[in-house]
From TrEMBL:
<keyword id="KW-0961">Cell wall biogenesis/degradation</keyword>
<keyword id="KW-0862">Zinc</keyword>
<dbReference type="GO" id="GO:0071555">
    <property type="term" value="P:cell wall organization"/>
</dbReference>
<dbReference type="Pfam" id="PF01510">
    <property type="entry name" value="Amidase_2"/>
</dbReference>
<dbReference type="InterPro" id="IPR049708">
    <property type="entry name" value="PP0621-like"/>
</dbReference>
<keyword id="KW-0963">Cytoplasm</keyword>
<protein>
    <recommendedName>
        <fullName>1,6-anhydro-N-acetylmuramyl-L-alanine amidase AmpD</fullName>
        <ecNumber>3.5.1.28</ecNumber>
    </recommendedName>
</protein>
<dbReference type="GO" id="GO:0005737">
    <property type="term" value="C:cytoplasm"/>
</dbReference>
<dbReference type="GO" id="GO:0009253">
    <property type="term" value="P:peptidoglycan catabolic process"/>
</dbReference>
<comment type="similarity">
    <text>Belongs to the N-acetylmuramoyl-L-alanine amidase 2 family.</text>
</comment>
<dbReference type="GO" id="GO:0008745">
    <property type="term" value="F:N-acetylmuramoyl-L-alanine amidase activity"/>
</dbReference>
<dbReference type="GO" id="GO:0009254">
    <property type="term" value="P:peptidoglycan turnover"/>
</dbReference>
<dbReference type="InterPro" id="IPR051206">
    <property type="entry name" value="NAMLAA_amidase_2"/>
</dbReference>
<feature type="domain" description="N-acetylmuramoyl-L-alanine amidase">
    <location>
        <begin position="92"/>
        <end position="244"/>
    </location>
</feature>
<dbReference type="InterPro" id="IPR002502">
    <property type="entry name" value="Amidase_domain"/>
</dbReference>
<keyword id="KW-0378">Hydrolase</keyword>
<dbReference type="InterPro" id="IPR036505">
    <property type="entry name" value="Amidase/PGRP_sf"/>
</dbReference>
Amino acid sequence: MIKWLFLIVGAFLFYYWLQGKKRVSQKAATAQVKKKSAQIVRSEPMVQCQACQLHLPQSAAITSENRFYCSEEHLHGLDKQGWLGSAQWRVSPNQDQRPTSEVPDLVVLHHISLPAGGFQNEDCTHWIVDFFLNQLNPNAHPYFKEIGGQRVSSHFLISRKGQIIQFVSTQNKAWHAGASSFFGREKCNDFSIGIELEGDSDHPFEEVQYQSLLHLNNALRTLNPHFQFAGHSDIAPNRKTDPGIQFNWSKFQAESGNPANDFPYGLNSR
């Protein structure tokens, strides 16, 4: 009798030990799964495409500044708010809304150099950025004291290195044209997109600037395939001379494929 009692107790203890071992193994396995899941979550955060709001793993997204895009098309295009994905975004306070009846159908090309000709010897793009943001240091150069109080902007700036910087959404009005007239249509800011090319009338523009201008052209054509193009000197001939004789209108027209009649002031440098 005692022998059978020992056998029963032994069997019970063995069963209890075996079940405990299984529980420990299951807990360890569960902990390992949770650990791996946490690692996956930590290593694959989800982000949202700036253009279409698609959610995707960050490792699969294209990054521009602190923004994410799901495709090259969205990176190099305008989003629904009128911002170019591949540009640097620097929002200027010098803007306002377009009149409700106006849709942009004109692109105005300018040139700008701060200080004059400074780009020949050093990188001066940051001065232009500061100017459009009302942050230009008047003590950095004598000329800056003269213009420091001006309140101007453009939609886009193309630096000597081909970098595109955007200051104003294409949906809004930038302050780039001033008093102006496009074949009798006054106040060109109301219906135009302003593009500044870093440079002047004495030095040829860089090839990389033309390439960036073509990129912008393609993006803007998705907004309006019938944009016309003019220089600041065309719409304000008594005040302005830019983009000047160094800008090659024929080159831009040929490489962009835009119809010649989209250049109502002609293709000669002026």
